[in-house]
Amino acid sequence: MISVVAKLTVQEGKVEETITAFKALLPDVAGEAGTLLYSLNRNPKDPNTIVVIERYKDKDALTAHSATPHFKAFSQKLGAVLAAKPEITVLEEIDLVSK
User: Whole-model pTM?
Assistant: First the structure.
């Protein structure tokens, strides 16, 4: 499994617009075969920071996600609202406990 943590710093006054855009993206992401989790989160101590936690079946699924037309279109919109370059961390899952 592959996990991704994407930390996004959004421009002042653009957070709600960004959250709305993410929510519109979620149904398309949910339909991707290898995407197992796509969680949208906000840091309450820094409301302009959005953290997306993602989980994929394998590296190919992550590559497929990044290549979808809906993600490419979303990424272009996202670039217009970010205040800084996204911090993306790709992790190899070692073990998991889930309820």
Answer: 0.91
Q: How many CA atoms does the CB half-sphere of 32 hold within 13 Å?
A: 27
Please give the Cα distance from 31 to 45 (Å, whole number): 32
Question: Which one, of 61, 62, 65, 81, lies nearest residue 17 by Cα?
Answer: 81
All residues at 6 or more sequence positions from 54 whose CB lies less than 8 Å from its CB, including other chains: 3, 4, 5, 6, 35, 37, 38, 39, 62, 65
Round to whole Å and give the CA distance between 95 and 82: 33
- pLDDT tens, the chain, 99 aa long: 999 999 999 999 999 999 999 999 999 999 999 999 999 999 899 999 999 999 999 999 999 999 999 999 999 999 899 999 999 999 999 998 888
